[in-house]
Write a structure and sequence with these properties.
The structure is a single chain. The chain has nine helices and 16 strands. With 326 residues, the chain is α/β, with parallel strands linked by helices. α7 runs parallel beside α8. The strands form four sheets. Strands 1, 4, 6, 7, 9 and 11 form a six-stranded antiparallel beta sheet that branches. Strands 13-12-14-15-16 form a five-stranded parallel beta sheet, sandwiched between helices. Strands 8-5-10 form a three-stranded antiparallel beta sheet. The chain has helices spanning 5-11, 33-38, 43-50, 155-158, 169-177, 213-218, 221-238, 266-276, 307-320; strands at residues 12-13, 17-20, 26-29, 56-61, 65-74, 81-87, 90-97, 104-110, 116-121, 126-136, 141-143, 148-153, 180-185, 207-210, 244-247, 282-285.
Length: 326
């Protein structure tokens, strides 16, 4: 069974839709057209907006093999991509390579016998085109039904830096909670109310937002407070009553080195606490307690978690939120 655009859009989690090139290749889309235009402001923003972060082809099927012909291109500053395949919620296949060395390829993954949930996670840090997606010997094909949530954030939310497509915060939450989570994380992003777009085509069951570490790098304390307040106010205006989990920045190795005078790292959580207290549907979680303060849990030994870091991040987040009771 060849998966066409209609089937891909109907079954894939983490996307708003898919684009199709003249030669038939499919590419997942996670932003609205307005936001894709918004991010055309620079080439680096453009490619990150097209990255397939959070996209997961998910179905229940009796197929015996999954076959994928693909192409990848840079969707971040990292020369890395990875695919993961899960059957019955267990990883059964992983493919990882450098974009510069292997920009295309074919995956052939044997699947367990019988009906089972199958998930194919697409790269978080690359633009992905699917030349062919086939489920061999598939007589049954059903969607994995899940509530749709929205996740907003910076490079950490996009998935910097792991070659395991499934081991990012958004994808770990999606798998463990069985939710369809749209990952709109963008490297370099800050609290920016102009980014918010309520024209998603659905109302999220929950919104998770995690910004602040880039604000600390780029803004004064006063600028940060102003823009965070504008962002949170706009969020509440667009989606009134939708529960929002706001996460202040996780620990980073250089927290003792303020980038602008008087803007201590701890001030980020204090400001967000003052603002979020005005909105009954917004709950704030301190990121400082979500990851041990150990630099070896960071890919770059600074700010971006590695695979183990993301696993701990997701585990602690779910523990603190009672597994996001719905």
């Amino acid at each position: 069974m060849i998966i066409d655009r209609a089937a891909f859009e109907a079954l894939c989690h983490g996307i708003l839709g898919a684009s199709e090139s003249p030669d038939g290749a499919l590419a997942p889309v996670r932003f609205t057209q307005r936001l894709i235009g918004f991010y055309s402001r620079t080439e680096s923003d453009r490619i990150r907006s097209l990255a397939s972060a959070g996209a997961c082809f998910a179905c229940i099927t009796d197929a015996t093999r999954l076959i994928l012909d693909y192409e990848v291109a840079p969707g971040s500053s990292q020369d890395i991509y990875g695919f993961d395949v899960y059957a019955s919620n267990e990883m059964i296949f992983h493919k990882q390579a450098k974009i510069s060395q292997e920009p295309s390829g074919t995956l052939e993954v044997a699947l367990p016998a019988g009906r089972k949930p199958v998930r194919l996670y697409l790269p978080n840090l690359a633009i992905t085109k699917l030349r062919r997606l086939e489920l061999e010997n598939a007589y049954a094909l059903e969607a994995i039904k899940a509530k749709r949530w929205l996740m907003l954030g910076d490079s950490i939310i996009q998935g910097y830096t792991t070659g395991f497509a499934s081991i990012t915060l958004s994808n770990l939450l999606s798998l463990k909670l069985c939710i369809n989570l749209i990952n709109q994380g963008m490297a370099g992003e800050v609290f920016n109310a102009d980014f918010l777009d309520g024209d998603l085509g659905f109302v999220p069951g929950r919104i998770i937002a995690a910004y602040g570490t880039n604000d600390w790098n780029l803004r004064s304390a006063a600028e940060f407070a102003k823009e965070a307040e504008r962002f949170i106010g706009r969020l509440a205006e667009i989606w009134p009553g939708v529960p929002v989990t706001l996460i202040s920045p996780i620990w980073r190795v250089d927290t003792s080195e303020p980038k602008t005078p008087g803007f201590e790292f701890s001030r980020i959580h204090e400001v967000l606490s003052e603002i979020s207290a005005q909105y009954p549907n917004i709950s704030l979680i301190s990121g400082l307690g979500l990851l041990p303060h150990v630099k070896e849990l960071f890919y770059d030994r600074l700010v971006h978690p590695n695979e183990l870091g993301f696993l701990l991040y997701a585990k602690r987040l779910m523990e603190l939120t009672d597994r996001f009771e719905q």
